[in-house]
Amino acid sequence: MNKNLPHILSILIVLGFTLTLSAQDDLPTDYLSKEFHAGRRDALRKLMPDNSVFVVMAYPTRTFSNDIDYFYHQNPDMYYFSGYKEPQSLLLIFKEEQKGTDGSVYKEILYVQKKDPRAEQWTGRRLGTDGAKEKLGFSYAYNGEDFKNTKIDFSKFDKIIFDEFPEDVPNSSRDNADLADLIEQFKSKANIPADYTKDKRYDTRLFRDLTGKLREIKTPEEMDLLRKAVEISCRGQNEVMKAVHPGMSELEVQGLHEYVHKKYGAEEVGYGSIVGAGANGCVLHYMENTKTKIGTEMLLMDVGAEYHGYTADVTRTVPANGKFSPEQKLVYNLVYEAQEAAFKILKDGAKWSDASKAARDIIAEGLLTLGIIKDKNEVGTYYPHGLSHHIGLDVHDRGFSQTLKKDMVITIEPGIYIPPNSNCDKKWWGIAVRIEDDALITEKGYELLSAFAPRKVEDIEKMIAEKSALDNFTVPKLKSAEKKAF
User: What is this structure's pTM?
Assistant: First the structure.
């Protein structure tokens, strides 16, 4: 046998993997364009101080079980400024053009995972340097392993702008250019001390301020994706309302939401789905979703689709049996009135605090009238959270301004939560209501992006009465669940 045959076969196998993994058909066509990301980098440069460099690092990978990682979610800032979705990466953005030792002129450099056919067979395609240049529009893209020998004089910059370093970053002995290595190499090149917060050259606060100023205002391209994420979330709410019945479990409700999301092409949920029946709805971020029968209680569903990185945040609270009880209706309508009061404040230039006060005042007065509280100052007992936050690449997206601005997208989400054993009449115990909608701020008001899902009591009851495509959907009983005599 030819002694070189094993080597030749190995080359052919790798070549075969490379050809197989080189392209993928039938991908979505509405991802953000490379021009969008380039435009965000240009917008950032306009805000950066003179003679500064802006450094963005990928998020670390995280272990799910033994040698299995969680599905990777990129640092939204890395995606926003580059479009790159893979781990083990680093982005440098310079205020002014830089000159390399070879005479090259550049204003940004992206370091990416190296192409590796064997690794790609296991964990998926990598874009590589050629892909970063062709598909993301970077003139200067290098493998992560090249960063170590890159000659960049960080000492000449007046400001080095970066985010807080992530903690507990995995460091693989088999990869000399993983995120842990890139971070340590950056610290060394930039001469970053252990307590860098005492040196104003190293500015993590400015990183948050600059990204907040940019990301709080949504561009038309971003709005295309956010609108889809919000509508998909509403369609999920509607389909669940049609299908809901007392015999369902919280987990089943969660599954229906997320199936509808994926049916419309949303890759993930933007946060852990919150599906709480009765008193479970009083836990603000309840995610166990383990109740096996939701019964006749109120069902709080806070579920948001993530579409191409952009996240909706929509909550509806409905009666599982199709009809609000008198007590449920009173509490629900109070939350609805609070939300309507907040909506009236929304417009370019309005204060966040004014909208929050309008909602809180309505709830305080209503709880007092119903006898649930004895003093308006007790309102925080049953309305313990804020009214609003930005949405976008994060469900609690970056922001900077104290006033509302045109093209912000925010939530309006008042709520009332009365857990068992509260200091009020038992008839209120276990009622939890949150109504959460997503609004685009306009010059003179707002656009309710989540108007696709009903909010009024009568409209919710009407939706629940509609037929569902899942009414006759059943699955066989599990044989393994049958009790056996021994």
Answer: 0.93
What's the chain's average pLDDT?
94
- Please choose, from the candidates 126, 180, 222, the residue with its C-alpha nearest in 3D space to the C-alpha of residue 449: 222
- The range of the structural domain enclosing residue 328 comes to 217-464
Radius of gyration of the chain (CA): 26
Tell me the C-alpha distance between 354 and 341, whole Å.
10
Element (H, E) at 56: strand 52-57
Name the nearest CA neighbour of 300 among 282, 325, 326: 282
Tally Cβ neighbours within 10 Å of residue 426. Answer: 9
Listed residue (197, 174, 381) closest to 282, CA to CA: 381
Token readout for 298 is 């109120």
DSSP state of 410: E
In this structure, the answer to whether residues 277 and 323 fall within a common structural domain is yes
236, part of any domain: yes
Given phi > 0 = left and psi -120 to 50 = alpha, else beta, which region is 404?
A: beta
Instruction: Give me the residue label for tokens 């008042």.
Output: 414
Widest Cα–Cα separation across the chain: 93
Q: And the tokens for 94? A: 């310079």
Other C-beta atoms closer than 10 Å to the C-beta of 358 total 19
Do 202 and 176 lie in a common domain? Answer: yes
Residues 249, 191 within the same domain: no
**For residue 22, is pLDDT > 60?**
no
**Nearest CA to 60 among 80, 79, 81, 88?**
88
Q: Which residues 6+ apart lie within 8 Å of 128 measured at CB?
A: 112, 113, 114, 115, 143
Same domain? For 205 and 234 the reply is no
